[in-house]
What we know:
Layout: H1 14-22, E1 31-34, H2 42-57, E2 61-65, E3 67-70, E4 73-77, H3 85-99, E5 100-101, E6 108-113, E7 119-125, E8 134-135, E9 142-147, E10 150-153, H4 156-185, E11 198-205, E12 234-238, E13 241-249, E14 252-260, E15 265-269, E16 281-283, H5 286-304, E17 311-318, E18 324-326, E19 343-345, E20 349-351, H6 358-372
Parallel strand pairs: 1-2, 16-18
Antiparallel strand pairs: 2-7, 3-4, 5-8, 6-7, 8-9, 9-10, 11-15, 11-17, 12-13, 13-14, 14-15, 17-19, 17-20
Amino acid sequence: xxxxxxxxxxxxxxxxxxxxxxxxxxxxxTLDYKRDLYGENDAGKREFLIDVSAFAxxxxxxxxxxxxxxxxxxxxxxxxxIDNTDQHRLKFENLLRTGVDPPIRGIDFHAVKVDSSxxxxxxxxxxxxxxxxxxTINKYFRFYGRNSTxxxxxxxxxxxxxxxxxxxxxxxxxxFRSDRIAQIASGETPVPxxxxxxxVLHVIPSSSFESxxxxxxxxxxxxxxxxxxxSGGLHRYNFDGIITYRKLQEHMAICYTQIFHSGIIxxxxxxxxxxxxxxxxxxxxxxxxxxxKSLKDYLSTIEGLGVGHPTWICLSLLGIRGYRLLxxxxxxxxxxxxxxxxxxxxxxIQIVEGNHSAEDILKPAFDSIWNACGYKRSFNYNEDGxxxxxxx
Length: 392
């Protein structure tokens, strides 16, 4: 879904809202204005659920509550009188949890102060990857979509199409990932890399596979695209977008990060997995630290483009048969086995909201790598699952 404000929702100000009225930005498939809060009765609750599910079932969109409109054109920013915005957010979240099936993930809320007594509420609804969603409140059961004139009830063909598109979306992610891994493994990379083990990280926003999706990438984007385990590097435009890389020698790089015009980020590193003193190993702490730092930078970069969630994080290790995990002596109580395959293709991790830390997001992937080497989990986390790497 295209961002309405070209910035993270949490950074939207009253000036951004006023620009919608000044520029007479009309209601559309992805934008709806409401003057008043939804009612507390069953009809009001059902209206709210229909509005949100219709956006989720179609292209995603924004509900702006506290704007008076005429024929779909914003006229006045009235705001609404609410004492506690967090309380209203919780009320909306509870209603969505119990009144829509399956639940819609990744919805975000933001309050903008209009004056001392009035607030405007923004609800950002992503295009759902698990659509279609039905409104199921009080024995009511109906699917809705949205077009340029508003909401409409789904017919059988609409429901069938939404199901097929949802299934196809997951296929597209896996096909893209498989194709890129195959190209990297065969040396078909945007810059030449050494023939050694490779650490590959893909950050794939759900919007990347929308038809015609293309983000404009400026020079400032490269600041957040430092390669994994590198403090900086050269950068340039290429056919796919922008690449940042660090040279090993004149015609060889040791790592790169590529952002595609679609918003997808691909980062490949060989330095962390370069055999040292004849030993092929994965530095158990250094690689986790490097990936955590890079993921933070990459998520910040795509958020700066206005790319919303859900987002998929995909970690892969290539050319690593026989590698061992290099752990401190204190962890040698368990036998460290060599990896028994050429590639570790770790299951995709889905981010539905932007409030999760990189440490938490990557923990399942790190556990999988430690599992492959004979350990029950990553010991850079404590037993409660908290990252301890900075203290080690």
